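User: quick one - fold this with flavin-adenine dinucleotide bound?
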Amino acid sequence: MATHEYEVVIVGAGPAGMCAGLYTGRSMLRSVVLERGFPGGELLNTEVIEDYIGFEHVLGHELATKFQAHAEKFGAEIRTSTPVEYVEKRADGRFDTKVENGDVYVSPTVIVTAGGTPIKLEVPGEIEYAGKGVSYCAICDGAFYRGHTIMVVGGGDAACEEADFLTRYAEKVYLVHRRDSFRASKIVQQRLFANPRIEVVYDTVVEEIVGKDGLMTHARIRNVKSGAASDLVATGIFIFVGFKPNTGIIRGHVEHDAAGYLITDSSMQTSVPGLFAAGDVRAQLTRQVTTAVGDATTAAIAVEKYLTARKNGAPAPRPQPMLVPAAG
Ligand SMILES: Cc1cc2nc3c(=O)[nH]c(=O)nc-3n(C[C@H](O)[C@H](O)[C@H](O)COP(=O)(O)OP(=O)(O)OC[C@H]3O[C@@H](n4cnc5c(N)ncnc54)[C@H](O)[C@@H]3O)c2cc1C
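Assistant: Sure. Structure tokens for the protein plus flavin-adenine dinucleotide:
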């Protein structure tokens, strides 16, 4: 077990973590990016990206490799296979970031870029057809289904809103929900029911995702009331049954929203001075590669200012309240 001292520790090497590492490296800060697996984050689960500006068509793993090379060129130190167990504020105001092998990284600032995980249906075929019909992101993958018949699974706001959104591309969208009514807000439901391209399939669960020649062809579904099984023909299935931010590593109280996403001010600082968050782990309107790297840029620059203020003996910038737009 060893102790390492850095000026900033970055947790997670997805797009946000690598971008933060690029900027802290460029600013000559002693920084390290701790990644539990390989660098890339959700890019490694994404076949093709078509909405990252400047890249009309890029493979997820290809973009991840480019991010890593670019970040390392500017001095980012990325440690792979280094899962973080916890981040905890010390009595001296710095943070301990403890990793699985027992090592502790001590730093006055931490940027959490640990992302989140879409909750899976955990049915046969879901992993096999990921990126080949199975998706967890309508904005990202909707355009691949122009003119297709697809299905959406879920009953909350996300499922209903995304079903509506997907009719921009798909000819027909089946919305499969395991209950007989939705928990989505009324206004979202009104839009859903007014959309002639959406057909709701109530009281139904997906039991298997089936395909041929590496592409999804249909889903095997079951009505939970009658017990009857049938096949629903669709070339895509968008699963919106929840998304869990990876915030369990943070010890102590940090402000978060009802779903557990970290609330930050406009400099990406959380309610704990010195603790910053960027990317999918942060409470915000949308979660994309562009927003992740945008957050990370802000966080890295804010960290530099925070450290400079500390060195000069000035009070470090404290978290500012979030500006919430007035209703109406
Ligand atoms: C299937 C799918 C398709 C998508 N397609 C697109 C698209 O086409 N265009 C687009 O713009 N966006 C797309 N997105 C969204 C985009 O991938 C994310 O918004 C982006 O990856 C967020 O980056 P991030 O760095 O915040 O988080 P992530 O990419 O989730 O990276 C987080 C990293 O933190 C690591 N980590 C987590 N916990 C720990 C720990 N305890 N210790 C160490 N490391 C840890 C993880 O291993 C991971 O590498 C897609 C998402 C999905 C799921």
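One thing worth noting: The helical segments are 15-26, 60-73, 138-141, 157-166, 186-193, 289-311.
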